[in-house]
Specification:
The protein is an all-alpha fold. The chain has a domain at 66-108. The protein has 6 helices and no strands. The chain is elongated, with a radius of gyration of 28 Å. Mean pLDDT is 80; it is low at 6-13.
């Protein structure tokens, strides 16, 4: 029906494929490729790299966020890095008078 995703007309070296992608039949990939080309108004050759990239990214396991995987030591290290990143801004410190109760609350104090 369509051109399989694995066709390489330019003689370029193909990227390694994951088992999830290899298990999809070439006919199904061809049909998907043809449909995407029709919907996007582009040629299958223009769509193929985008489809390949999409399939590769969908077949990779989702990366878990830092807060789910970090150890207490990693949290401390990241917190210190965050503190240091603010020190690099070299902003002036507030004076004792500026952060005093009288200054903050005024007459309500």
């Amino acid at each position: 029906m369509g051109t399989p995703l694995s066709d390489n007309k330019r003689g370029e070296e193909a990227a390694p494929r994951s088992p999830a992608i290899e298990s999809v039949r070439a006919e199904e990939l061809g049909a998907i490729l043809e449909s995407l080309a029709r919907v996007s108004g582009r040629t299958p050759e223009e769509v193929r790299p985008h489809l390949h990239h999409l399939l590769e990214s969908l077949s990779r396991p989702a990366e878990r966020p830092f807060h789910e995987t970090a150890s207490p030591e990693e949290w401390v290290e990241e917190f210190h890095n965050w503190i240091e990143s603010h020190r690099a801004l070299d902003l002036p410190s507030l004076s004792d008078e500026a952060i005093g109760r009288e200054s903050i609350y005024g007459e309500r104090g």
